[in-house]
Hints:
Largest interface: A-B, 34 and 28 residues
Strand content of chain A: under 5%
Order of helices and strands of chain B: HHEEHHHHHHHHHHHHEHHHEHHH
Distance between the termini of chain A: 46 Å
Oligomer: heterodimer
Strand content of chain B: under 5%
Structural class of chain A: mainly alpha
Order of helices and strands of chain A: HHH
Number of domains of chain A: 1
Amino acid sequence: MEALFAITLGIMVTSGVYLLLRARVFxxxxxxxxxSYAVNxxxxxxxxxATGAVAVVGHSERYGDPLPQALVLTAIxxxxxMTAFTVVLALRSMGEVGTDHVDGQExxx
Amino acid sequence: MxxxxxxxxxxxxxxxxxxxxxxxxxxxxxxxxxxxxxWALMPLAGWLLVLAGDDRIHVYVLGNWQPPFGIVLMLDxxxxxxxxxxxxxxxxxxxxxxxxxxxxxxxxxxxxxxQLLGINGAFLTGDLFNLFxxxxxLLIASYALLLHGQGPGRARAGLHYVVLNLVGSSLFLIAxxxxxxxxxxxxxxxxxxxxxxxxxxxxxxxxxxxFLLLVVFGLKAAILPLHLWLPRAYxxxxxxxxxxxxxxxxxxxxxxxxxxxxxxxxxxGTLAGMIEAWLWPLAMxxxxxxxxxxxxxxxxxxxxxxxxxxxxxxxxxxxxxxxxQGLSAALYYLLHSTLISGALFLLADLIVRQRGEVxxxxxxxxxxxxxLLLGAMFFFGAISVAGLPPLSGFLGKVMLLRAVGxxxxxxxxxxxxxxxxxxxxxxxxxxxxxxxxxATDEAPLxxxxxxxxxxxxxxxxxxxxxxxxxxxxxxxxVQAAAAQVHQLGPYFDIVRGGAR
Lengths: 109, 500
């Protein structure tokens, strides 16, 4: 399970970085979202991967670590707010600068 | 438990929320409330300075959970110093903004208060994840403040700043998660204890987490090669915002000192001092780049922004020395450079307002309306920031140069700092002579500088004078702060249930 999990995160981050480097506003936002998903899953896995482990002590043989779940919640909320902000900023920059390139001008080939 | 510790968080939080709810109130009322809340931070920070002066580490245990469970706020001399300099800087910035800059977009004062909440929180928290949360608070407020007042230049610089910092936040989360996964704690003092007791097989992963944190803090602090966002962003922000941002790079440097002295400090065995070999060349390069940038700047605000990069490099050199002397010199220089950078951004705006259409571009323009007054202020600020005697920049540099012992480090530091100082003098005197002496024959603009704006700027410039006049007690305080940071025992006692 760990290997599958790690490969999944790796693919997500790779795609995210690729999209980030496209330097157009919409792919950049998508890339940031993918990276933040991968990071959230990574935090989640830091409580160790296990199935059937209840987060309450005494209800099963092993218990799941509740703290990463709390951290992930915080990270999701913050990440969501930041993504929303980036989208609004991207729209405004599009309106004011007139291009969706992150440098505010079309690259000269 | 002393409740004074949480007041620097509650005050801006309540006033910021109140201003947000009452956003339809008259601008005058909002100004008064914001100025009141910001100025109230100064006596509060003074109180905390005195409180921290007893060399104990004061801990505020939120929810009364026994540390390391739950979040703690901790106050030591270092944190108190940072709070104090923030409050002084913010008091001038809010005063300056209240003369019209806050009208250029909605909710300026609420955002300003949230920005202060984030900065104060970062200086007070004793928990790594909580540090992340406060970083995000100060960042999201800074995004909005940076964009305050419209304009394509701001949107462009803002987009770079936001995207870079979002990537930085992801790296911070990865580092915090690795540390939690290995040690099972996020309390910084507890992390220090656990890292010191870690198995050798865990050391590489712990080091990886540490270097990820260094990248994140380096991005905030604008250390080469992660500094490229800074000049554009600072130069395009409105003046009071740019002045307040002078503390933001210092938040990154503070986090480097805090994490790498406490978690990866002297007790960390093989991991102790792992970043110093990296910081040293980076500090030199950052300093040199800042000077080159200042020499090449074509706009007054860009020149000032590059001076911020120079100060980051100088500060980092003091931190990279890893000694008490180095850190205390860096702390003195930090107080000086924060206040004077803030003052220079405000001054640049005062000058630009009297230059008409050419704005900040360094070209010949009609004469200023008040060349003597602004010229004198520019002269004072330039001497201080370039590190010429008798002002505070000189003292800071002397302390830094005396902190390096003879050897390779001195061979690297002395020429870079001294030639860098010469470069700054050249850049500033070129800009100054162009601004004040060479003018076209056109009549100057009629408008004189606003009195309150002048006052805010002079107030920060006077900080440099105070740092010289009261150099002895301030030097003693930073010396004690640096000594305290290197004494890890009392910090570790927090999690052993000792300090309260």
